[in-house]
Amino acid sequence: MADLETFRAEVRAWLEERAPASLRGRPGDIFHGTWGGRRPDFETPDHERWLAMMAERGWTAPTWPREYGGGGLSREQNAVLQSELRRLRMPAPLIGFGLVMIGPTLLEFGSEEQKREHLPPIVRGEIRWCQGYSEPGSGSDLASLQLSAVADGDRFILNGQKIWTSYADASDWIFCLVRTDPGAKKQSGISFILVDMATPGVTTRPIKLISGASPFCEVFFDDVPALARDVVGGLNNGWTVAKALLRHERTMVGEIFARSVIGGERELLGLARTAIGPAEGRLWDPLVRDRIVQSAMDERAFMLTVQRIQDAARAGQSPGAESSILKVYGTELNQRRRELAVEIAGADGLGWEGAGYDPDALARTRDWLRSRGNTIEGGTTEIQLNIIAKHVLGLPDGGAR
Amino acid sequence: MADLETFRAEVRAWLEERAPASLRGRPGDIFHGTWGGRRPDFETPDHERWLAMMAERGWTAPTWPREYGGGGLSREQNAVLQSELRRLRMPAPLIGFGLVMIGPTLLEFGSEEQKREHLPPIVRGEIRWCQGYSEPGSGSDLASLQLSAVADGDRFILNGQKIWTSYADASDWIFCLVRTDPGAKKQSGISFILVDMATPGVTTRPIKLISGASPFCEVFFDDVPALARDVVGGLNNGWTVAKALLRHERTMVGEIFARSVIGGERELLGLARTAIGPAEGRLWDPLVRDRIVQSAMDERAFMLTVQRIQDAARAGQSPGAESSILKVYGTELNQRRRELAVEIAGADGLGWEGAGYDPDALARTRDWLRSRGNTIEGGTTEIQLNIIAKHVLGLPDGGAR
Amino acid sequence: MKLALTEDQRLIKDSAVTLWKDKGAVRRLRSLRDTGDATGFSRELWAELAGLGWLGLPFPEEHGGVGLGVTELCLVLEEAGRTLAPEPLLATTLLAGSALLLGDSDAARSAWLPGLIAGDVVGTLAWQERARRDDDPPSCAALATPAGDGAVMLHGSKREVVAGVQADLVIVAAQHSETRELGLWAVPGDAAGLLRTPLSRIDHFPCARVELDGVRLSEDARLGGAALLASALDRATIGLAAEALGAMSAAFELTLGWLRERRQFGVPIGSFQALQHRAARLYIDLELCRSAVMAAARTADQPRVSAAVLGQAASLAAARTLDTFLRVADEAVQLHGGVGMTDEHDIGFYLKRARVVASTFGDAAWHRDRWARLAGY
Amino acid sequence: MKLALTEDQRLIKDSAVTLWKDKGAVRRLRSLRDTGDATGFSRELWAELAGLGWLGLPFPEEHGGVGLGVTELCLVLEEAGRTLAPEPLLATTLLAGSALLLGDSDAARSAWLPGLIAGDVVGTLAWQERARRDDDPPSCAALATPAGDGAVMLHGSKREVVAGVQADLVIVAAQHSETRELGLWAVPGDAAGLLRTPLSRIDHFPCARVELDGVRLSEDARLGGAALLASALDRATIGLAAEALGAMSAAFELTLGWLRERRQFGVPIGSFQALQHRAARLYIDLELCRSAVMAAARTADQPRVSAAVLGQAASLAAARTLDTFLRVADEAVQLHGGVGMTDEHDIGFYLKRARVVASTFGDAAWHRDRWARLAGY
Question: Which of B22, C8, C184, D321 would give a disulfide with C223, using CB separation of 3.0 to 4.6 Å?
């Protein structure tokens, strides 16, 4: 404990001295921040300085081992660091799938060489990663994927297509699932491989969504050579690696939604007060009021469930299948809340663009449209319900139906 | 048309002269009336007279052919008769499964002998029928039924059990599905047979429901001899007969609910006005008000759908699978409405029996409990949804799942 | 009231099916959007609708109409709704047209109705000022101030006016500055002081904000008062419900097609029971919507129907279709999975349109509340 | 506030699981019903509960309690709820017990609390007069009329009093005839003028109507006012939510067992995806209920917790569990099919209990409305 207090004092002093003043009080969120990469898009020069100084100490990935560029901090030390960062309300120096997806996967499944090669650039924010899982014919049935990787000496030649790859057009490397043994049964012939997107033959095409935004891409592979040493977790063993990562992704998604739903009650109330107005000191329209409370209660119960899962995990009591629960409930909660916001706004929620609409209202409507995808991406609600039924409730298998 | 007007005048004169005055203005409903049978339970002597005089003209089954005891009326003539009965608000002279289930089935599938033997006693209300379909192991999967019928000369010997047989303890004959060919595939080895319940070896046991009532029975068959000539529609062809009857039953159930939901809005409103009271001229508690309107609108839309199906049928436009729609929606509507009534009543809806509770309130609560079974009996909602998905929407078969 | 189609109605329905199908369904709306078409709908098609007599369906022959009713018009609207046709058919016939037909001003009727039926006049009704439909009649700050000789000057601002920029006739709701009585006024599209600003909404149907900066009108431009506005809105609500019925039917059928075609785990996803049951439930709700819409249209066509009966029929049709359309569209996207989220696929257009429909003439909760008011509770 | 069990709490939970399981689950309630048992619960078991110290869980050691909290008591209530145990544990500890513990009267506290903890005193609180929970505090026509020397006479009538006939201590809410201030008064079960009539409710838990026909009480029988009633009701609401959580968990597990065991079409019905998804959704809602209940109990145990914070936590737990219990019970019967409708099967007892729970301390809509009031909207 004494050590931790020393550590805290040291961190605090260092931050007080060096953390750019312009960033204090601007915490940002999980989707808005510094993504890094070969074509970095720093919001301000201070964001760039902030990344550099934190990366130097390994504090962009505080708990990763020092030999791979990480901070080497214990969990307790990291908690101290995070609380000090929150104290100054600093933005994360770096965000992205390198830190939260491929990094942890390499730490668990990667070879010593792979860790030494790929982890330090992630820590320094030099390489931005994306995830190549889904294919046009393989959505919920991921194991039916077809992207072919044919061995050719110490290389594999990749041909095929990925889809729903988040930010592929801004990423440098992709980790993807490929079929290395077309003769084997579904899951058995799949490998997990890392590909430099600068390799000739890789092209990306953004997908325009109903919200008008394009956060996802198609990625095409046309005779793309990848190196055999970039296969992670062993040849034809990709399914094991992928499943571990998917579980991790679901938990992350749940926690993201846990954070994103915070403050929903206040936002909805503000909207309703504008659109409907009060009567006798209370928000008029008891039906809208009831729905706002429902949303607020859903939010609170969800947050408490996130906390309970974390507390139980710390106490060594795993409630099981938490990731699927969080994914299903968190995404639907977010959808309901955004639908309710648009509904309360009435005609103010119908604007697409241009004059005549408040920019906040336009953003709210786009957010609603975007949220419609939450229950599809990252494993559909239907797939999560299958998982809960089978793995938590122990209901008999109906043949993947 | 002139003939119809003559007919109407004649009917009216006959009714005006003979219809018992004590029954006028007491229309009753589909579940409450004269069931007839060997142990008839006439509410009053006038009910008995009313049955006798109507049966004599065949007007208990107005559209059945005269040679089987029916009234031999055309559809138009029957419409006139019914409207004249409504004019005086007379109760039906006779109700029961003989008239609405086995009678029409015999008219469609029965032999000449069967019709001559069984229809006239139905018309006269001398024999009360019940339906033996479900078995303890065969609910939704009706075709898996096991009640065995082994041929023995011109007889079959029946062994096994039926369950959920409505009013079996008050009935005289049972029409049931039995397995006559245990070697054949599921549906193929089933026959439809008529059994006199006075035959030695037939016993019944009422089933007590959660509402406290016992409208259903178990029926046990212990070496019961049935006659081969009482097989309807041909040996091992019972499934065809049964399916026709099931469709008929669903339509009937839908129409029953269509009638039973009438007036729900007024009932709920009355309850709410007592339990909650008005404010500023309107029913206070806008949430309860909204739910009453939802119920009222559901009811109205359902009634309109029943009407549309009837109108379309008359115009030769069949909207298809109407019976399953009516069954699913009608039963759930009835449940929602009864739940809402109990909910609005608050603590007044919690009484089971005895002093301290209004008898109407006790009946309302029992009705709610009874209604819980509506979505199970007569083919579960789940089975109806399967039928709609497959036969109306043309979705591919998932192996009976 | 028979809830079945007559032979004549069946013929109209068949023609409507054919016409709209020929026009290319949602592809047409998409192309109008992508090309940034200033009109926002097809003038050629409009002329064709007039040629078929469809703009005159609910008007008596004495005014140049076909002499049928809302029932027949709803058949056309339903098919238009299937393809998300942005033509202001509903605004012209059931908003403006109803106000002219049922209003008090013979002068306005004979001035406008023949042109409207002939396809020369696009009409609309500017009634909305707040973001949500509130009171009944709707709150109205726009003023009609006496300007001598029975003439008035209109001042005020209206929003969400369907085809407000394109309309040749904008009927405006305004409160008399002295009597405080609500009035509907027929304003020519080219009137001085009438300012129209296009609004880009998520459904990409033409819509506008309309400003009245001293529009001078003569006495006979007044069509009627609050009761007339209520009738016009109720008839339009029924038309909108018919349109929504068509749209949700199309979205549902697209989804059924996808369920049959898309394969995962080696089988069509439509063989999964959980999805089958959801589809079956949508189907049931859709069938109930159809009954409510058919009944409402026939109610509107009943001679001397009372305002309360018409209002309840309209609110029933609206409450059911608005909710069901949203739910069908929402489930349609979910059941389509990833492709349902892409702009490239048509299904998203239905989701957006459902949202607009849901707050065009009041949302479902509003209509339920009104049902209760009309029923006296 | 940690939402995980400590080692001690885990031990309490394990003992509770064992105890209630040994008592025979729903069979016990059924047998009390079928034999028409006049007490309606087991006095032997009551003594056993006292012996285990569970009646003293939420009371400080200085009053003879165990010195733990609502959190620990809720673990016992949850397991009691699983078996639908009709013992008036909640009424005694969280209604009467809370009023004594948090009230102003030292005399009443020392007179009643030790006996209550020892199992000698069954306690309850008579607060309800209307069929539905209305205002906050609840409307109260019962009167406390001054009778000299600080004494009062109580007159009035209360309904739905849990264990009202069996209780040795009935705490009664009455309005002071002059100050109009609400007060809670400790009335001994054998007081002259206290009339108790048993009510037979669908859940077969003991319940009564209580009439006060001039019950004379001395000054120190007054425990507190509206704030005390609110605290007691909130703590009891949290306990009820815990009981409901246990009951719905048991109903859900019964259903899962049936889904695994019952075969139709040659397979267990639990392999049908439509049923799997419904079960999975019930499970998710159940898990959220658990979080809300755990948090509410811990909130009640926080020192100097404000009435608003306690109220919101209680109303959250209530709103979620009441709705979810009803839904779980309803689905449980449906998924059981025909056997679920028989009196012979236990599942119907859960359905009936769910309905009683749903209107014991206000229904879910009431609790949502109160959440809004406490949050200022």
Answer: C184
How confident is the model over C138-189, as pLDDT tens digits? 999 999 999 998 899 999 999 999 999 999 999 999 999 999 999 999 999 9
A320 at D interface, C-beta within 8 A: no
Give chain C's domains with CATH numbers.
7-122 (1.10.540.10), 125-225 (2.40.110.10), 227-374 (1.20.140.10)
Q: Is B249 a catalytic residue?
A: yes
Rg of chain C on CA atoms, in Å: 21
Q: What angle do CA D197, D201, D205 make, to 5 degrees?
A: 85
Domain A129-236, CATH class in plain words = mainly beta
Residue B186 carries which side chain, given as an amino acid letter?
K
| Chains adjacent to C (≥3 CB pairs closer than 8 angstroms) | A, B, D
Query: What's the gap in Å between the CA of D202 and the closest CA on chain B?
Result: 5
Own/partner long-range contacts of B317-320 (Cβ < 8 Å, ≥24 apart): B317/C4, B317/C5, B319/C287, B320/B391, B320/B392
The residue of chain D nearest to residue A302, with distances taken between CA atoms, is: D288
Q: In degrees rounded to 5, what are phi and psi of residue A155? A: -130, 165
ipTM: 0.94
Helix (H, G, I), strand (E, B) or coil at D295: helix
Using the Cβ of A382 and the Cβ atoms of chain B, whether some distance falls under 8 Å is answered with no
Non-local (6+) Cβ contacts of D200 within 8 A are B351, B352, B353, B354, B356
Q: What is the pLDDT of residues B185-223, one digit of tens each?
A: 888 999 999 999 999 999 999 999 999 999 999 999 999
Of A59, A198, A194, A60, nearest to A114 by C-alpha is: A194
- Cβ of B347 within 8 Å of Cβ of D159? The answer is yes
Helical (H) or strand (E) element with A257 = helix A238-260
Average pLDDT over residues D258-272: 95
Q: What topology is assigned to A2-123 in CATH?
A: Butyryl-Coa Dehydrogenase, subunit A; domain 1 (1.10.540)
Q: How many CB pairs under 8 A join A and B?
A: 10
Q: Give the CATH fold of the A241-392 domain.
A: Butyryl-CoA Dehydrogenase, subunit A; domain 3 (1.20.140)
Distance linking the first and last C-alpha atoms of chain B: 52
- Range list for CATH 1.20.140.10 in chain B: 241-392
Which residue from B minimizes the CA distance to D196? B356
Interface of C with A in 61-80 (CB under 8 A): none
User: Which residues in D lie closer than 8 A to residue C273 (C-beta atoms)?
Assistant: 272-274
Query: Which of B139, B349, B355 has its CB closest to that of D338?
Result: B139
Of D263, D266, D363, the CB nearest to B343: D363
Question: Chain A contacts of D373, Cβ < 8 Å?
Answer: 282
Q: For residue A342, give the 3-state DSSP assignment.
A: helix
Q: Per-residue pLDDT tens for C285-342?
A: 999 999 999 999 999 999 999 999 999 999 999 999 999 999 999 999 999 999 999 9
Whether residue A276 lies within 8 A of chain D, CB to CB, comes out as: no
Let me know: does C117 contact C65? Beta carbons within 8 Å. Answer: yes
* Residue from the list A276, A381, A401 with its beta carbon closest to the beta carbon of C132: A276
Please count the residues of chain B.
Answer: 401
Q: Do C287 and B325 touch (CB under 8 A)?
A: yes
* Across A107-112, average pLDDT: 95
